[in-house]
Amino acid sequence: MTGGWALLVIDMQRDFCAPGGYADRVGMDITALRRPIPQIQRLLYAARGRGHTIVHTREGHRADLSDCSPAKLERSVAAGAPIGSPGPLGSLLVRGEYGHDIIDELAPHAGEPVVDKPGYGAFHQTDLELILLSAGVQRLVLTGITTEVCVHSTLREAVDRGYRCITVGDACAASDPEIHRAALAMTSGEGNILGRVCDTDEVLRLWAGEAEPT
Asked: Is the model's pTM score more than 0.70?
């Protein structure tokens, strides 16, 4: 398979995947959010072996919250876990804190870009598009959490920018499995309007040249 692929690993952070982090404190099911880890590991292994671009993202804010809009901060307060408030993993969703970093199981390798984003979508106020353009990427494989928020926000931004996208259904997760299924159905509706939905095995076959590219 020729180049032009990038694997996006979206927000697999302790604040979303570990006890005491942001997701846990708002009552989300972190067991469900951790479910994609083995599939993402498989995709990372394959992407590294084939030389595909790999980009990790982290949602979070500066310590002074100057890049956190009042509306977003208000939503976190209403959810019961104000951004920047202290927790067992450090201040919630603040860059440089232990909870903000990517979980050990999916730790980036040297040279793999880590994009810190203040919003839900990975293109908003980041250099993600510059990274992709510099690498000649035309096709994105999206994984991570949550399916309905940060994955979907990134996907929609990518589609509008002309990228061909695959969302890996078993390598994404939501706290509520019904919401996860609905988000995937929204993606593949209207003739794959937001790109294809595949499982991990399908993507691995695609990368191995055993299936037609999107």
From this structure: yes
**What confidence tier does 213 reach under pLDDT thresholds 50, 70, 90?**
low
Domain count, the chain: 1
Amino acid at 53: T
**What 8-state DSSP symbol labels residue 103?**
P
Where residue 151 sits, what CATH number does that domain have? 3.40.50.850
| pLDDT value at 94 more than 50 | yes
Residue 142 lies in a domain: yes
pLDDT in tens, 118-166: 999 999 999 999 999 999 999 999 999 999 999 999 999 999 999 999 9
Q: Is residue 91 part of a domain?
A: no
Residue 174, phi then psi, degrees to nearest 5: -125, 160
Question: Could you give the residue numbers annotated as active site?
Answer: 11, 117, 150
Ramachandran area for residue 71 (φ above 0: left; ψ -120 to 50: alpha; else beta): alpha
pLDDT score of 210: 75
**Minimal CA–CA distance to 33: which of 151, 165, 121, 196?**
151
Residue 192: exposure state from Cβ atoms within 10 A (0-12, 13-18, ≥19): middle
